[in-house]
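COURSE: Structural Biology Practicum
ASSIGNMENT: Worksheet 4, Part C
STUDENT ID: 0417
INSTRUCTIONS: Below are two proteins. For each, the amino acid sequence is given first, followed by its structure token string. Answer the questions at the end about the second protein only.

PROTEIN I
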Amino acid sequence: MKAPRVTLDQWRTLQAVVDHGGFAQAAEALHRSQSSVSYTVARMQDQLGVPLLRIDGRKAVLTEAGGVLLRRSRQLVKNASQLEDLAHHMEQGWEAEVRLVVDAAYPSARLVSALTAFMPQSRGCRVRLREEVLSGVDEVLTEGVADLAISGYAIAGYLGTEMSSVEFVAVAHPDHALHRLNRALSFQDLESQLQVVIRDSGRRQPQDVGWLGAEQRWTVGSLATAATFVGSGLGFAWLPRHLIERQLREGVLKPLPLEQGGSRHPVFYLYSNKDKPLGPATQILVELLRQFDTAPLDVPIAAPQLA
């Protein structure tokens, strides 16, 4: 790649001349001599081979080419300033990235709310979000691949912060054979039917949480796929209410009238990597995740305010 001939300082000088209305005003704003400012701009024009300014009376005015280049240079200078700020924050212990792994059953609306609030406080810190199912969250955290984890069950050797519960509802299509029985259902009724379960994304000790030992079991890779299967009349499943609220309202899915266990409320926990101290950005994100954990799921999410 060809090395640039014009420096960031030269672009900043040109911007100051235009923004402050002249060489003398720019020199005062930059705490430099007027001759230094004039030389810098003249040198730029020689290096670029394009006239950037013309003198109109006593005022320096941008040429057409100068206007185009100045507009492009503003983003260049802004990016360089942000890069320097990020380096300064990192020197003070501010993280360049926070890695967050979340169980796919946790409400994504709450994540979006927390991350939207985090963005203007992030100082350039990126968030790497990863979704796993059941023990997949455990593995990602214990392998050191995540800084924070939200899981629906206890992770051995870690102290988690209790968060809200998520309601799982046993559902099937309204025309499913179980609904046609027109009575309260027992687990024996379910055992003779096809159950759709979600594949545990963990590799070491995958679990069959929620499976009743039904004669037929179909395993799918995501909650959304399970909802699609069940909504098409293929079997029954326990699914997060927040994920299937629309299908329930529209009558595509209907809760099963179980004698007991028709809904489950597993509590979720927020964990941190115990082998890595929490940096300032991670601590801010932790507080925001806890703050928005109890937010109503039917409240519209505000658009992020961009700087």
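PROTEIN II
(use this one for the questions)
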Amino acid sequence: MTTQELPFPGLAGVPTNDDPQNRKEYTSDQEVRWCPGCGDYAVLAAVQGFLPELGLRRENIVFVSGIGCSSRFPYYLDTYGMHSIHGRAPAIATGIATAREDLAVWVVTGDGDALSIGGNHLIHAMRRNVNMTILLFNNRIYGLTKGQYSPTSEPGKITKSTPVGSVDHPFNPVSLALGAEASFVARTIDSDRKHLTAVLSAAAAHRGTALVEIYQNCPIFNDGAFDAVKENDTKADAIIPLEHGAPIRFGVQDENGVGSKGIARDDATGGVKVVAGDDPGVLIHDAHNPDPTIAFALSRLTDAGILHQAPIGIFRSVERPTYDDGARQQIATAKAGQDDPSAALASLIAGKDTWTVL
């Protein structure tokens, strides 16, 4: 048994499995219960197919979920898992990741679970940079409770809870993550298996909190919310691909394979704007820039109304110290050089102002 080295530094310290694995070994015996056509099936298949590539033992992988359709995920994977309580998955996962360096910790959540009741836990997990991977399924609706508007529903959305239209302004999950200074932020699509798997691989390789927003279609209560980025006749103009080190171009390609549109800095607003694909000011995407300003500006290209265009890919991937590594180092430092490490730890916990009552 060994521990992880490259290409998955995010899993350093997690014991590996030297025996070859396949998808079947990660498929549980539980009946998968989602509505026919739900995008969750595609994400589950991608994750089950991807996990063997990590080379880990199944008992060293844990999936923590909250409440919602997406949160049934742990039942369908033959790993350790916990179906926790509404919105609290990041908090529970923080405890697991801090106490057990030998575990690969994943969180599966939805736009309602993560961004409504769980919003506070989510932003602080990202701020602390806990070593975990968060998969945020965004279908822009509450599915499990039968079609109420969610924190990502567009203004004017007609639902059972907003019969004359929502007056809320929605969250942009990527903007929120970048604002919380998450060290890894990406967006992908449930139906694009190749891209989804590539993003999952990059997220697993990252040490720290990796947030992956997944556009996930709800065929029952919000069907077609992401048609613009899925339909063949619209996706060229709707998807703005982000690839580190490559020009940010999109739109119908010319004979040289260059997109007809590009993204450049907008000096008037300080943000970014759409320009012609051959414009000399087209930005080169730098996902490793320690300053998240450009990444945030790119996230604002996704409108808050009906989805017309969206950057897809890795917005940000930078290195900074993780909360759990720091906490473990403090404990190790407190124990170092002590004849009785447990007594030293007890002294640290008790502090200097201690009273004994007889």
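ANSWER KEY EXCERPT:
Q1: The chain has a mean pLDDT of 92.
Q2: The domain at 9-246+285-320 is CATH 3.40.50.970 (Rossmann fold).
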